[in-house]
Amino acid sequence: MADGPENVLFAPFGGQAPDPELFLSSVLDGWERQQRAKDFSPTTIRSRRRLVLAMVDFTGHYPWDWTMADADEFFSHARGVRNLSHSTVRSYQGAIKLFCDYACDSRYDWSEQAATLFGRVFGQIVTELNKVTHAHPTDARPAKRPFTQRELQEFFDLADLEVHRILDSGRRGALAAWRDSVAFKTAYGWGLRVNELRHLQQVDFSRNNRAPYLGDHGVLRVRWGKPHRGSAKKVRTVLTVWQWTADTIHDWVERGLPRYGYPITDLFPTSTGGLLSETHLIHKLRTLVDELGFPPGLDLHSFRRAYATNLITGEGFDVTFVQLQLGHEHASTTSIYSLPSPDYQRLALERAHDRTLAAARQPRNEHRSTP
Q1: Which of 111, 265, 280, 326 could staple 121 via S-S, CB 3.0–4.6 A?
Q2: Is the pTM of this model over 0.70?
């Protein structure tokens, strides 16, 4: 019926009933090609395909038989019974909506073929009536928070102390503890996500001609940034802000990294030459945080939160600059981090008191004229 291989009519021959499983597989294959053309990642495409099949299994209906009631039941079960997060359910709805948009599009003829084969057509089942609203600029859980400046200092001091404790005890693992300490400082020093941190390599650092005092670590090229809607990894450039972070990386590259052998390209390798795992970093962070007795709410992303909060509210950097550093698409996302931290509020109050006391100590001008 159609000319191209994308739209082939599955007409029954020999009196056999049409095969819905074969037809559904063909629709999903076509949707996969369409997503690849839009540069979505293979992982995203596979997860969306599994989601469509999961909804078919849950509802007992094929997509051309789906109704809004099916969608309501599927998503309410995901939220209420499976206890999936708000953001996860919203992403599920977005994937199903994209699939329905594709299947309903007359340019692909899938609805026409479904009508011929099964007497039904595709319809959009995710609308404003049942779609999870995105009322907030972030889906982050309120319990999650940034490190305060005091907590950061105590955390980094304990991470450094862990190296000496291992050396003094004669146990193995001092090099790994040193690597973890530098990794945590790097996550904070450049405001990195955990996956960006894990994939760092030596070649990602370069000089900043405007800041030669930072040496070879004045600019960081992040090549594994968070993708937009499943597309390829986003690349961004992060400028080094603090001298101590450049010194930390320089010391690690010169004295620590060569102990893993040569050549080494990854900045934070394992003893077997693999990538440092997120599970290991989480376990190490929890161990140190528990030993320090910090209040709950801290995770690996707390370093990134602390970086942005300190730049905006602590040191007065412009939100646009911090937005570019973090790789946020919208300034509204960056402004989330502009909520004053306790340290910022305390310092601001101290500065206000100092100004008041300084003004009170100034000698009064007895000959001042009345305005």
Answers
A1: 111
A2: no
